């Protein structure tokens, strides 16, 4: 009950806030996506069938003064219930932004930073064709896949904008925030704060020209006690200190007539002096889509994710096909199916091989 009390208070005071003084009314809106899924990804379990509220995002937005805007984003995942210990409830964003011009915008507070193409818009489910998004951005999987390893989920300050130049728009964004070493144990002091003296820094630089959009992204931070996090122990070394971590991303998309293609690549590298460990990760996806009518589009997508925690290495590939059917401006119906192939190696010996399929139907709503 303590976890949901702030949300109840927020709803109860929304009308009063909307009537309060300020430069504009309080805007309340959001997205949610309900799904039904059949999957056969584990032979021991067999076929699973389930319904789920996959994701819900509730936004509160208010213009505070000329050029000043604030926003709160509350995210609910996987049939959230605190009593039943289902899913998760996250305060995903709470920021204020000053927009001087198209060339300069400063955002301060908790927010999702710009990284590659999909990171900043991954929660806009009615606008995306996917039911299951490319894995590095599928937040409903964060209970068993470390999705925030691939793309930064949270930052605390960002400067961004774009500059026209000879028919091309040059985009930029630089951001900073806490590193990955956040305290979650009340016994060790205040939770939710960075436990080190280092910070995360990153950015994206890109261009847009007609139907083309492309960019390069990066982040730099330092990971402490990596061995404990990964549950891997190497004799004679219990604490790895603060290991530098670099994320590097490339994104590109091109739209022509009714067709389009988009791709992303992310590499995560840990620069540790000890050759005994290697925690590098790679992610790649490419999607080809075609809009047959305004009310019907189809896509074919391929995903690849590789992770290492030597001596263990894993690889998963996904081939997926889907369709998206907007119903008016606020409802989107979706179908998606996919084939999953995964392998795990221990010292180059294959110790786990699995394959399976999933079939999903969903309705996404913008309210």
Features:
367 residues; mainly beta; 16 strands; 5% helix; globular
For the record, give the distance between the C-alpha atoms at the N and C termini, rounded to a whole number: 26 Å
Figure out the total of helices: 2
How do the SSEs run, as a string of H and E? HEEEEEEEEEHEEEEEEE
Structural class: mainly beta
Strand runs, count = 16
**Which descriptor suits the 3D outline?**
globular
Content of β-strand: over 45%
Which regions contain 5 or more consecutive residues with pLDDT less than 50? 11-20, 227-232
Helix content: under 10%
What's the arrangement of strands in the largest beta sheet?
1-2-3-4-5-6-7-8-9-10-11-12-13-14-15-16
Walk me through this protein's architecture.
The protein has 367 residues and is mostly beta strands. The chain has helices at 5-18, 226-230, and strands spanning 27-42, 46-65, 68-81, 86-101, 104-111, 155-165, 168-177, 200-209, 212-224, 242-256, 259-270, 281-293, 296-309, 312-327, 331-346, 349-366. The chain has a 16-stranded antiparallel β-barrel with strand order 1-2-3-4-5-6-7-8-9-10-11-12-13-14-15-16. A hairpin with a 2-residue loop joins strand 10 and strand 11 (259-270).
List the helices and strands and how they pair.
Elements: H1 5-18, E1 27-42, E2 46-65, E3 68-81, E4 86-101, E5 104-111, E6 155-165, E7 168-177, E8 200-209, E9 212-224, H2 226-230, E10 242-256, E11 259-270, E12 281-293, E13 296-309, E14 312-327, E15 331-346, E16 349-366
């Amino acid at each position: 009950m303590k976890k949901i009390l702030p949300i109840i208070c927020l709803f109860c005071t929304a009308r009063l806030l909307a009537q309060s003084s300020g430069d504009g009314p309080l805007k309340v809106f959001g997205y949610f996506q309900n799904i039904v899924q059949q999957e056969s990804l584990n032979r021991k379990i067999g076929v699973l069938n389930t319904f789920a509220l996959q994701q819900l995002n509730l936004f509160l937005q208010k213009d505070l003064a000329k050029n000043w805007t604030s926003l709160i984003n509350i995210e609910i995942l996987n049939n959230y219930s605190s009593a039943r210990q289902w899913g998760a409830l996250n305060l995903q964003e709470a920021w204020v932004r000053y927009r001087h011009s198209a060339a300069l915008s400063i955002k301060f507070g908790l927010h999702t930073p710009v990284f590659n193409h999909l990171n900043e818009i991954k929660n806009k489910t009615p606008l995306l064709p996917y039911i299951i998004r490319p894995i590095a951005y599928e937040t409903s999987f964060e209970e068993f896949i470390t999705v925030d390893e691939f793309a930064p989920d949270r930052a605390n300050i960002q400067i961004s904008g774009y500059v026209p130049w000879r028919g091309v728009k040059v985009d930029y964004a630089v951001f900073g925030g806490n590193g990955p070493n956040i305290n979650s144990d009340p016994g060790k002091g205040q939770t939710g704060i960075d436990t080190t003296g280092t910070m995360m820094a990153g950015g994206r630089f890109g261009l847009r020209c007609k139907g083309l959009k492309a960019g390069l992204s990066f982040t730099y931070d330092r990971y402490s006690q990596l061995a404990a996090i990964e549950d891997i122990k190497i004799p004679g070394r219990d604490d790895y200190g603060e290991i530098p971590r670099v994320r590097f991303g490339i994104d590109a998309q091109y739209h022509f007539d009714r067709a389009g293609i988009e791709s992303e690549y992310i590499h995560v590298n840990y620069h540790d002096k000890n050759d005994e460990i290697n925690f590098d990760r790679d992610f790649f996806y490419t999607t080809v889509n075609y809009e047959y009518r305004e009310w019907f589009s189809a896509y074919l997508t391929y995903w690849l994710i590789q992770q290492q925690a030597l001596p263990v290495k894993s690889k998963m590939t996904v081939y997926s096909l889907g369709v998206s059917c907007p119903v008016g401006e606020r409802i989107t119906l979706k179908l998606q199916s996919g084939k999953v192939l995964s392998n795990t190696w221990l010292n180059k010996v294959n110790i786990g091989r699995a394959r399976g399929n999933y079939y999903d139907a969903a309705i996404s709503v913008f309210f």
